Amino acid sequence: MVFSYTYMMTNPHNTVIYTGVTSNLIKRVYQHKTKAYKGFTSKYNCTKLVYFLQFSNISEAIDFEKKIKAGSRAKKEKLITDLNPEWKDLSDGWVFSF
Question: What single Pfam family name could you report for this chain, choosing any that match (predicted)?
């Protein structure tokens, strides 16, 4: 089974929150950390994975991503804090090899 993920990344000072969706979380986080693509996350140094939720299909993940993006920053912060109260990088210790 292939899973999909909705996730949130932030910068080292937790001042910017990026919300995304992917079917390969490890690879996508690696791309953010290495700034493989020029865009929002590379511009604002969003290299810290602070939230993710797994779904059984991409449609569910996209729907949840849209719901998060439509919400306020306070709602995003609550989702993160409920899962990860200290806003630690959830990808610490991951081995990135492809």
Answer: GIY-YIG
